[in-house]
Amino acid sequence: MIARFFPFLLTVGTVLGNPHGHTPACKYIPGDAGWPSPKTWSRLNSTIEGRLIATVPIAHVCHDRGAFAAYNETACADLAIALQEDGAATLQPQPGEIMNPYFYNITCSPFTSVDTPCELGNRAVYSINVSGPADVQAGLKFARKNNIRLVVKNTGLDYMGKSSGKGSLSLWMHNLKTLELKKHYRSPWHKGAAMKVGAGNIAGEVYEYIATKGYRIVGPECGLCGFAGGYTQGVGHSQLTSAYGFAADQVLEWEVVTPAGQYVIATPEKHADLYWALAGGGPGTYGVVLSVTVKAYPDGPVAGGTLIFNNTDADAYWEAVGIWYAQGPSMVKDSPKNVQFFVSNASLWVFAFVMPDMDDSAIHEILAPFLPELDARNLPYTLETHNYTGYVENLNNSYGALPYGELCPVYPALGSRMIPRAVVLNETANKNLMDVYRKYTAGGDWFVGCSFLDTVEGGDVRPEHPPNAVHPAWRESIAYCNPNNPWKWETPEVSIADKEELSGEFFPAMEAATPGAGVYLNEIDSLYTGPWKDTMYGINYDHLLSIKHKYDPYNLMYGLFAVGSDEYTIDEDGRLCWVGY
Ligand SMILES: *[C@@H]1O[C@H](CO)[C@@H](O)[C@H](O)[C@H]1NC(C)=O
Ligand SMILES: *[C@@H]1O[C@H](CO)[C@@H](O)[C@H](O)[C@H]1NC(C)=O
Ligand SMILES: *[C@@H]1O[C@H](CO)[C@@H](O)[C@H](O)[C@H]1NC(C)=O
Ligand SMILES: *[C@@H]1O[C@H](CO)[C@@H](O)[C@H](O)[C@H]1NC(C)=O
Ligand SMILES: *[C@@H]1O[C@H](CO)[C@@H](O)[C@H](O)[C@H]1NC(C)=O
Ligand SMILES: *[C@@H]1O[C@H](CO)[C@@H](O)[C@H](O)[C@H]1NC(C)=O
Ligand SMILES: *[C@@H]1O[C@H](CO)[C@@H](O)[C@H](O)[C@H]1NC(C)=O
Ligand SMILES: *[C@@H]1O[C@H](CO)[C@@H](O)[C@H](O)[C@H]1NC(C)=O
Ligand SMILES: *[C@@H]1O[C@H](CO)[C@@H](O)[C@H](O)[C@H]1NC(C)=O
């Protein structure tokens, strides 16, 4: 904890809250005397060639009160449907909007009454429509000088609401759409193809681009998920993790502006500490990433398919689910294989087998020890297999049409726990985990999405990767599992209760059943109560914190559960306040 020895700490007690003693502890929000005047904002706008956008909530058409009121019954009804049916496509392209309904918080919403005032709530007040490093530098400088909260928004898909914040200035990266395949990339860590991906690209756009080029890359299953932001910076699991490692393991270069305004390319050799922290140490913490360059691999056939069996006899069903988990490690051992499935009270549904460079005999092979267990328990099943010509074809078929995909719940109450090999292979521990699943899925509302993968370091399946900040617990996991409950837009109080049940009971029970494991820092509920420094960052936390302090001495970067976030608090009016080391 290097920070403990910084000499300026002696002044913290007297100059409340800021290590440099120049600005107040809390960032200003509109209405505060210190909030910049229209003229000051206008000056910022001129320095960035008119790229400043004042947020007007998209749901202003649903209200007849408040500063943005513009009620239109038809437009509001259309929006209510659009949010529920294709929320990603509706909200992602909007600069100030928040995709996560918990942080959206029904401030200015089709689901509140017409006479509720339309207010910004947690939305940024202004966004900079970023076109390059100079816009980011201008935003950072303005936020620092004027004591304004800064947020970085690529897609707005963030379970912790990191891309939103009351009274904030948002660096809106949406239009950074670089997609560049470099067939002959050379560096000490990689000789071969690489992809440069802009911060504004969602994964679906990357897949559509690369599908016809003869390459595959490690990316998220969900097309609507951003690529270069929280996903890769927060570890990034993938259907291709068994084959090539985590998304963070693939990074060759980060194009980044540091909070102090320096524009750098961070690689394993240059600005190596920043490179290391950005690769798995969490987004929105160490710098503003404009693009990432990752390894690309030659594409080839991928076998895929589905398997489903139903809960027609509860004891037999849960026994079979337990056996399924116990066989998980051998299904993927020392191989590029991946198996993704949902467990609910109704069924175990494998919606994706991912067998890179194999035909469907690989699926029949891994199921050979399992299917007789279903027969023995009188549990009928349906199995379907396919030989696809490439990776994206398999993904597109299991997750639904790109770019957004259909299978991914846009707004769930969600957690994600790593499942250690030692747990599923131990009969007692396995049974304990199954009992937790059985108990919480019994109501019919919760299901658990899981992915079996092989992540063991060494061996010759996966390429070597540069040192990075991926939580070491990931390398001992056989699966990650996500308890999941879709958001109910029209009854947010029910969804808040779901979140409370998840964070208060279900997830702690999963943690207790999987001792010593970590959580996926990108897919955790915002009400999470576990020991987050340990479960999200593990032994890397202190080193990450020293890098955060080195690169962000001005306290510009904050996100819930981000490294160093306990140095801040949100006051009763929603201001972000620095409370000290
Ligand atoms: C910034 O300037 C542009 C161009 O003059 C203008 O269209 C835009 O409305 C301005 N933004 C704000 C927030 O005033
Ligand atoms: C209200 O919204 C509808 C649908 O978007 C649009 O066609 C109509 O012109 C709007 N009415 C007014 C008065 O703006
Ligand atoms: C949502 O709004 C309520 C008050 O309207 C506030 O108490 C709560 O803290 C807000 N939640 C978030 C996540 O901002
Ligand atoms: C943002 O900037 C891009 C060009 O970089 C432009 O095409 C787009 O219209 C701008 N968006 C908004 C909402 O101003
Ligand atoms: C499982 O249940 C679903 C829904 O009731 C049904 O459509 C399907 O045929 C069942 N599958 C098997 C293998 O029994
Ligand atoms: C997949 O390819 C293998 C090898 O050619 C073949 O035996 C199998 O029948 C094919 N499966 C399907 C579903 O076409
Ligand atoms: C994905 O599937 C849809 C049909 O479901 C198809 O129209 C589209 O071309 C596919 N996209 C890719 C990239 O394979
Ligand atoms: C198996 O798991 C149980 C329950 O967690 C634990 O008490 C026991 O020590 C474990 N056995 C072994 C051999 O690790
Ligand atoms: C859970 O599954 C059992 C079958 O084992 C069934 O009887 C029960 O109705 C299911 N519960 C819900 C809420 O679907």
UniProtKB/TrEMBL annotation:
The record ties this protein, via SUPFAM superfamilies, to:
FAD-binding/transporter-associated domain-like
Q: Please indicate if the UniProt record lists Heme as a keyword.
A: no
Q: Where is the FAD-binding PCMH-type domain?
A: 120-299
Does Flavoprotein show up as a keyword for this record? yes
Stored InterPro entries: BBE (IPR012951), FAD-bd_PCMH (IPR016166), FAD-bd_PCMH-like_sf (IPR036318), FAD-bd_PCMH_sub2 (IPR016169), FAD-linked_Oxidoreductase (IPR050416), Oxid_FAD_bind_N (IPR006094)
Using the record, list the residue span of the signal peptide; answer none if the entry has no such feature.
1-17
User: What UniProt keywords apply to this chain's record, in alphabetical order?
Assistant: FAD, Flavoprotein, Oxidoreductase, Signal
Q: Which domain of life is it from?
A: Eukaryota
Cofactors: FAD
Listed GO MF terms: FAD binding; oxidoreductase activity
The text of the family note is: Belongs to the oxygen-dependent FAD-linked oxidoreductase family.
Please give the name of this protein: FAD-dependent isoamyl alcohol oxidase
Ranked from the top, the taxonomy reads: Eukaryota, Fungi, Dikarya, Ascomycota, Pezizomycotina
